[in-house]
Design a protein that fits this description.
The chain has about 300 residues and is α/β, with parallel strands linked by helices. The chain has one domain: Alpha/Beta hydrolase fold, catalytic domain (Rossmann fold, 3-Layer(aba) Sandwich). The longest helix has 19 residues. It is globular.
């Protein structure tokens, strides 16, 4: 067999290696990626200026283990936790301040999390998911202290943040963290990955040290039995075929398990554009978030 023939061998479904690599790199499907990131940065800065900035709180001992809190104006409101994306190797809470204004205006506390990226953890996703899980527990145990309702905690994640959030939503909270199994009352996952087997075969394995243990533990599609709240699964129809499939398959599996799920598709939106809709109460993600938490304006 020639090297040319070998390079066209299928490695997953009908994809050869180059095709699979391309499907797990959203830059190939979103030529305006840098422009959207610039808009997000500008929007986050503007929201911070209008709201007076966030309160920075530590949820763990490491320097990075902190969160940005935008408090609701009236005590007793729900909490929306945001888990940022960035292919597991980039991103920060400061880029995710844009949606805060919509939530605060709706009487909801908004939290953007910081956590180590996979480069900093030496390729280990398990460390990252433990950080985010501990952040959720911290929010639950400290919500009353910053004027929020600990019985009304919701979570949203985008891209690799949606992968982490999928695992948050399928956590055995009682066994692993001594927290109530219904610690979360609802979740949103947007443009994420919920089965790591094909991701392991892609170029992402160059910076993630995938192991059998990691793939089993952090493929939320395999742990839907632990899901204890309604969820909203979303993706854009301009995303890569693999990201579209991953979200469709996850929503279908949740529905098959008899658990409440809404699947929605952003028409004409790529992987980064869809994330912008979270901060607008009249756009897809914003409207869905307000409905999920039962906030005014929904």
């Amino acid at each position: 067999m020639t090297s040319g023939a070998a390079s066209r061998e299928k490695v997953f479904l009908d994809y050869d290696q180059a095709e699979l690599d391309r499907c797990y790199d959203q830059a190939n499907w979103a030529p305006n990626m840098a422009l959207v990131h610039a808009r997000s940065d500008a929007q986050s800065a503007a929201v911070c200026a209008r709201l007076g900035g966030a309160t920075r709180l530590a949820y763990g001992p490491a320097d990075i283990e902190k969160l940005d809190l935008f408090k609701a104006r009236v005590p007793g409101g729900p909490v929306m936790i945001y888990v940022h994306g960035g292919a597991w190797r980039s991103g920060s809470s400061t880029r995710c301040h844009g949606p805060a204004e919509m939530f605060v205006d709706a009487g909801c506390n908004y939290i953007a999390l910081d956590f180590n990226n996979v480069v900093e953890t030496g390729g280990d996703l398990l460390t990252m998911i433990d950080q985010v899980r501990r952040a959720v527990v911290w929010v639950y145990r400290n919500a009353a202290g910053f004027g929020a309702d600990p019985e009304k905690i919701y979570i949203h994640g985008h891209s690799s943040g949606a992968h982490l959030t999928g695992n948050i939503l399928t956590t055995d909270w009682e066994e692993a963290y001594g927290a109530p199994k219904n610690i979360l009352k609802g979740g949103m996952v947007t443009s994420g990955m919920y089965e790591l087997a094909p991701v392991r075969l892609s170029a992402r394995s160059s910076y993630v040290n995938f192991t059998d243990e990691m793939v089993e533990a952090l493929s939320s599609l395999r742990h839907i039995n632990l899901l204890n709240c309604p969820i909203v699964v979303s993706y854009g129809d301009q995303e890569s075929p693999e990201f579209q499939r991953q979200n469709r398959d996850f929503a279908a599996a949740v529905e098959k398990a008899g658990k409440p799920v809404i699947l929605q598709v952003g028409k004409g939106l790529n992987h980064f554009e869809i994330a912008e809709t979270l901060g607008n109460p009249y756009s897809m993600l914003g409207r869905s978030a307000l409905r999920l938490i039962g906030a005014k304006g929904s």
